[in-house]
Amino acid sequence: MKSEETVIEVENLTKKFGEFTAVNEISFKTYKGEIFGFLGANGAGKTTAMKMLIGISKPTSGEASVTGLDVYSQPDRIKRNIGYMSQKFSMYDDLTIKENITFFGGIYGLERKTIKTKIQEIIESLGLEDVANKLVGALPLGWKQKLAFSVALLHEPKIVFLDEPTGGVDPITRRQFWELIYKQASQGTTIFVTTHYMDEAEYCDRVSIMVEGKIEALDTPKNLKKEFGANSMDGVFLKLARNVE
Asked: Domain ABC transporter spans what residues (predicted)?
């Protein structure tokens, strides 16, 4: 359910650590209901860029707003208005599924009645009825990731940031996870996802490819493959990397 409503606006956003420039004057926009892929090799700057957008790292220069909130002056409000799923699993292993949902619902400021409803919705949608009272630590990684994604959406944010969400899970679970992403995007939620799996870039509406701190390409997967004369996003990435060297 993509629209022309802008959810993220970035203009010349830069992050330096001393003399090292991790993110170098990047500019882009994302829209409501869009699945926006943020690609790049390790060290390309994509995680640093995401940290600025979610309000946990202050930019060195440039401008950026997320859901209309300024990254410099309103980082705390940004944190309350987005969903976020980190690269490392973010649930508590020593709490049950129900306890985790209750805990994060409280953090997001949801009322008890709402949390109770959300618990039921999440457990039913993920098919976790038989293990709802078991410790999260006992779940397979794939189920943990699906649960973490659902919890990131508890407070119905306009945008959810996913940092390498399918790392370490098997191909079938990865596909199931992307089905959850598609479903959420179809309801108008913007999905901002970093990944190093180039085949996952094919699932995105648009893809931004970062190389050494700069956005070197940004378009739909179809247009990027055409532009670089490649049959896959792997081919696009390899050609782009060679062009930049």
From this structure: 8-237
Please answer whether residues 190 and 197 qualify as being in contact, where contact means their C-beta atoms are separated by less than 8 angstroms: no
Would you call 235 exposed, middle or buried from its count of C-beta atoms within 10 A (0-12, 13-18, 19+)? Answer: middle
CATH entry 3.40.50.300 includes domain 6-90+159-244: yes
CA distance 59 to 43: 17
Under the banding of pLDDT at 50, 70 and 90, the label for residue 12 is: very high
pTM over 0.85: yes
Domain range list for the chain: 6-90+159-244
Dihedral angle over CA of 59, 43, 216, 86, nearest 10: -70
Q: Give the model confidence (pLDDT) of 144-161 as tens digits.
A: 888 999 999 999 999 999
For residue 81, which phi and psi values (nearest 5 degrees)? -105, 5
Pair of tokens at residue 3:
């629209």
Residue with tokens 């779940």, as numbered in its chain: 139
Query: On the CB side of 114, how many CA atoms lie within 13 Å of its CA?
Result: 11
- Say if residues 33 and 3 touch (Cβ distance below 8 Å): yes
